[in-house]
Amino acid sequence: MEPLSISIIGAGPAGLSAAIYARRAGLAVTVWEKTAPGGQMNNTPSIENYPGVPDVGGFELGDKMRAQAAGAGAEFRSSEIQGVDLSGERPMLLTKDGGHECGALILAMGASPRKLDIAGEARLAGRGVSYCAVCDGYFFKGQDVAVIGGGNTALGDALYLSGICQSVTIVHRRNEFRGEAYLSKQVIAKPNIRLLLSAVPEEITGEKKVGALRVRMLEKGETQELLLSAVFAAVGSVPSTHLVRGKLALDDYGYILAGEDTRTSHPAVFAAGDIRKKELRQIITAAADGAVAATMAAHYLN
Ligand code: NAP
Question: With a cut of 50, which residues of the chain have pLDDT below it?
Fold first, then answer.
């Protein structure tokens, strides 16, 4: 019989940090990830606030964390978890190859990009509508694009795209940014970034690919049509908790109710990173959660 181990779902900073700490606690660790390790870091062009590495690409930081976890002996399985059975004492993961019982389970699935929920978005997704500037920006080299949102992601994406595209218009629904001042200063200083504030996106148009974005200007009540080739949505994220809905206590927004100790409503299940109800969702807080979750899981197993 397979020895009981800790399973970690998700290989972003929370999951990878948990894997490193769990291995150092002497536990067998399996990390389950459906795509490439790194999580949302892979969508972040440049990270300037992770201590010790003042300016690092998100992909590069994720790759280093993965290599560290693999070097510590964590096993990586590239498989989408299709279900989680939490009805018994031991969590059971359901994959296309069958069930996998674990001694303890760390949920670190993070969050996925929130949709704009406007006309044309779904139809033109992948044809100029994108949720990842780092992944898709290069396809729009020398062209005019828009970034929707006013948080750190939108500001960082606009800066990144300004180095590739002819012009970037930031469309934000309020007249001040939610993102940090150091980023907005850089944005304002870029000659090819234009700000369209108090502006709400209403429709993305184009037959086979994006051709324009219609926005409503809140102060004047009029609409404007921006001719462009791509719309990058950066309007926050929603927790990836569909596997545990109805099985663990969640808050009204779908985040797992777990405190700083990462304990959930199931004794063998711990929640780390953006998936947990918390005040600050950053790489460093996700990594910190991973360390706590692995330590709590080790205590639980002992
Ligand atoms: P966020 O901070 O939640 O910002 C989302 C932005 O989208 C807000 O400006 C919001 O407007 C706007 N928005 C939301 N729904 C919208 C809609 N339906 N239509 C139009 N606009 C909409 O999300 P985020 O920027 O992805 O950042 C998430 C977390 O990650 C934050 O804690 C952030 O600091 C962190 N982060 C850090 C870094 C970094 O440090 N390098 C990089 C990226 C993200 P309102 O402002 O009006 O609500």
Answer: 1-2
